[in-house]
Every structure is written in structure tokens, then in C-alpha cells.
Amino acid sequence: MPPTVKLAAKQLIMPWEELRTAAYLDTLPKRPVWTVCYGEALAVKKGMKFTPDAGRLEAKLIQRVIYDYRWSTALMAMSTPRYRCRRP
Questions:
Q1: Would you say 4 and 25 are in contact if contact means Cβ atoms under 8 Å apart?
Q2: pLDDT tens for residues 42-62?
Q3: What is the helix (H) or strand (E) element at residue 27, kind and residue range?
Q4: What are the E-state strand segments in 1-88?
Q5: Can you tell me the distance from the alpha carbon of 32 to that of 66, in angstroms, rounded to the nearest whole number?
Q6: What distance in Å separates the CA atoms of residue 55 and residue 10, rounded to the nearest whole number?
Q7: Alpha carbons 85 and 88: distance in angstroms, whole number
Q8: Is 28 exposed, middle or buried, given 0-12, 13-18 or 19+ CB atoms closer than 10 A?
Q9: Alpha helices (H) in the chain, listed in sequence order
Q10: In 10 A of CB 75, how many CB atoms?
Q11: So where are the chain's domains?
Q12: What pTM, to 2 d.p., does this model score?
């Protein structure tokens, strides 16, 4: 695991999001979304519950941060314009 991912998860995301084992409606986004654990919103439905196994949930958060980072860098690479050098 990259040290920056561990740092981001432990020092930024976990204290900000808190651990919630029952799904709750996060009203901060423009469109409220069901959220659980440390801010996980992917495929979360009303009424979902997780056991409070902090180690497993922390590992899930770290996997999600790595996934999001890879996805965002791939999108940025696709949207970066490619310029060709013109020959004089």
C-alpha cells in the first residue's frame, strides 16, 4: 500500500467521515446519497448494516481510495490534450 494512501485514509478521511455501521442519508451532496462505514456510497441502500470490524472496514476504505485514485488519474490522462509537434 502506498504510504500516501494510508496517510490520507487515517489522517483525513477517517476522522472526517467517522465510522457508521448503519446506512444513513448523507445530505451534503446536491443529491443526497445513502452512505455507510467511512463515507462509502457505492452500492449502498437504505437499511444496510455492517459489523463494526474496524480492521476490515479500514481495509475497505483503503481499497476504495486506491480505486478512486487510479480511476481519476485514468480520466485525467484521457482528457489531457495530445499535441503533435509540427515539422518546419
A1: no
A2: 889 999 998 877 678 888 888
A3: none
A4: 20-26, 33-37
A5: 24
A6: 12
A7: 9
A8: exposed
A9: 3-7, 14-17, 54-79
A10: 10
A11: 3-68
A12: 0.60
**What 3-state DSSP class applies to 49?**
strand
User: Sign of torsion, CA 54 57 59 62?
Assistant: negative
Specify the 3-state DSSP secondary structure of 11: helix
Residues sharing a CB contact under 8 Å with residue 46, sequence separation 6 or more, in sequence order: 23, 25, 34
Please classify residue 34 by burial: count the beta carbons closer than 10 Å to its beta carbon, then call 0-12 exposed, 13-18 middle and 19+ buried: middle
Antiparallel, parallel or unpaired: β 33-37 and 20-26: antiparallel
- 52 and 38 Cβ atoms separated by less than 8 Å: no
In tens, the pLDDT along 10-37 reads 888 888 888 888 999 988 888 899 988 8
CA dist 8 and 11 (Å) reads: 6
